[in-house]
Write a structure and sequence with these properties.
Radius of gyration: 17 Å
CATH topology: hypothetical protein PF0899 fold
Structural class: alpha+beta
Distance between the termini: 31 Å
Order of helices and strands: HEHEEEEE
Oligomer: single chain
């Protein structure tokens, strides 16, 4: 379960940013996790809940957004949304799709006190 190591890195990043900006407590985090990122949002939430006590993010609310997978079709040029990595283009059925988003993990917002 690599969500645990991702959570460790996230908490280390939060601690570093908090020190740099004189923050004492993190209240809320908003992450973006692509549907194709191979991360399970619920496993990440579980890891965060288990690892956050005793850290600057101890009582932080964790919000996880999962935006749709977006790609551009190399056959018809359409910008499309997909359910899975190897789905055909919903416009033309083509298979030459260039992924634009869907495999990322980003810290979008951090509310602190």
């Amino acid at each position: 379960m690599h969500e645990v190591s991702i959570c460790q890195h996230l908490l280390a990043l939060l601690s570093q940013e908090a020190k740099q900006h004189g923050v004492n407590k993190i209240i809320r985090l908003r992450l973006e996790i692509g549907r194709l990122s191979c991360l399970d949002p619920e496993a990440l939430r579980f890891a965060f809940d288990a690892m956050a006590p005793g850290t600057i993010a101890e009582a932080a609310e964790l919000q996880i957004d999962q935006p749709p997978v977006r790609a551009t079709c190399g056959d018809c040029g359409a910008a499309v949304e997909l359910d899975a990595r190897f789905d055909p283009c919903p416009s033309c059925g083509g298979t030459r799709l260039e992924l634009q988003s869907g495999d990322e993990m980003r810290l979008l917002e951090m509310e602190a006190a």
